Amino acid sequence: MRSSAIIGTGSYLPDQILTNFDLEKMVETSNEWILKMTGISERRIADETMATSDLSIRAARQAIKSADIDPLEIDMIIVGTATPDSVFPSTACSVQNGIGAKNASSFDLSAACSGFVYGLDLADGMIKSSRYDTILVIGAEIFSRIVDWEERSTCVLFGDAAGAAVIQVSEEPGILASYCGADGAYADAELLGIPAGGSRMPANAATVDQKLHTVKMRGQEIFKLAVRIMPEAAQKALDTAGVSIDQIDLVIPHQANSRIIEAVVDRIGIDPAKMYVNLNQYGNTSAASVIVALDEAIREKQAKIGDLILLTVFGAGLTWGSALIQL
Ligand code: ACO
After folding, report:
1. Catalytic: 280?
2. Domains in the chain and their CATH numbers?
3. 254 is catalytic
């Protein structure tokens, strides 16, 4: 039986920092409120000359370097994103050109904040099917371009980032289990999404005036769904691999909100010290969140060779997923 493993990771965080104190000057909010309600102190904002593929290319180059492979070895590129460079062509095609991975089929994957774990699950299946050997999976977002900077309940939450992982066929299993789920009964752009700019509500002067191209969210409903879904998703990967939560070295949850993460800690019964959280510095970076955190944990040596790492995510759609990885 063929297995797959993560053989290299990388990430890119734009230099510009937007703090809660900066936001106090932009909307009626306070550092205290944002910290207490979300756990976020600051977030990164991409330079206006950059698109999502530019962030992705930087993260991908790092992942390729840490995997010590030639870009020509990559036979598929998957970019999980809710903020592609444009509706089409795909962001992944620009990444393919940017890193010189001429042998890779390339496409974007739309699963909102679950995009990276969906990509990982797909890559694992593609490698096990023997069709592909080396797949680059990216989670990348520039949410600063799609939030309404006058809407205090959403603009304080998000940040820009990209993370990348090279997944390759391996004799030793590295991805021990992965799982994806969805419930389209919640596919409501007012619950969590962007109402206009697609085929249902094409862009026109009225949609621009009404700011229907920016993120809408009913926060409390999302909160309740997230605290139920993320622990359930985590348990699925554990059950598939026959591993108990006590054996896990590090849990990397989607970095949406510290209160959601605290609820996940309670429900899955893990030592809070084993929960990796970097939300305070970067905010919610959607599809980039768990792969940026994994890359950071590896670089900080909080995640080491042989460790068992559990990812659990949820996003608009609704979508959710989990992955159990042995480094
Ligand atoms: N600063 C100060 N006050 C604020 C702010 C702010 N930034 N935002 C909202 N408020 C106010 C509201 O105006 C409201 O005031 P009112 O009572 O005078 O009308 C009050 O706070 C409560 O507003 P709610 O929107 O009901 O706030 P809530 O308690 O739900 O907290 C929050 C908002 C933090 C977003 C919460 O709903 C939440 O954590 N939701 C989880 C959703 C989430 O994290 N989504 C991330 C994106 S989704 C994803 O990653 C898949």
Report:
1. no
2. 3-171 (3.40.47.10), 177-326 (3.40.47.10)
3. yes
